[in-house]
Amino acid sequence: MRLLSYTKLIGFFSNNLKQNQDYRYITKMPYCNTGAVHHSGVGNEKDLVSLLNTNSSMVINQRLLERVQNATEVPPVWKHLGGTQQKADCDVTVGEQCFEVSVKHHEKSAGTFDWINTSKLKDFNAEIADLIKPRVAEFRERNKEATEVSKEMRGEMEGVFSDAFEHITSDQIKSLLESLYIKYPEYVLVNDRSKHRFVMYHKMNNFKEFVGYNDWEYYLKSTGRAKTSRMVFRRKDGVEVNTNLRIRLVLNNGANALLGLSEKNKTSIPCLKIQQDRVDILLRDLVDPIVDEITEEEKKEVSS
To answer: Is the pTM of this model over 0.70?
Structure first.
């Protein structure tokens, strides 16, 4: 497949971008619907790894080659990593170097994705673990004969998690975010289906809300009727900023599974999630992103 490439400055198309950002744009990469991999089919990490392995001229691959100064120009080799116990979804070998990559899928212009989803509540805050787990166990025992989960039962369970947010301090929030940054893979690759593109970026200088404001106070703010989540804000000298990070405390498989009423899931346990809201703003403000853009209109030019 012949790849059509060109470079353009994305700054001309967005008034909100910082003037000093360097967007390394773009491979315009069309795909047909005759069996070849196309963007609409890249719904998971395996599809993405396959596409990157079969299209070595993508900007992402070329920038990785530039980084390691691989004189032989052996294409990068991508590998999918299975399991849920690691934050990397795949890794890429370039010459003798290997880089871990976390893959995120983004569907809507103002959508979300998770940075972490963990059941290890005690590692984060022993107090809320000791508060939540006994109450969840008591709820399960008291309702073990239930044949359905009523609105009142659901509200009671949500109240358990809502109460727990009162026990989370600024230092605990900052410690959680910092430890997550340290453990996170070197690169993040966003499958931005909303704009038909792949955006990869290095974590350095791009996790500022995680590690860039240590002298600010971090706090949680309730938003409307969302009992099981709180937005993370920071403040200093009278200035308040929404980080666009959300902490959620939920049952990982819901109340039905907790009471044995789900055919799909047999168990359900408390978990903590850190969710990225307003992904569009995150992508807009990235430092030195690498972008491969896929557009439908280029299909005809490829087949001609």
So the answer is: yes
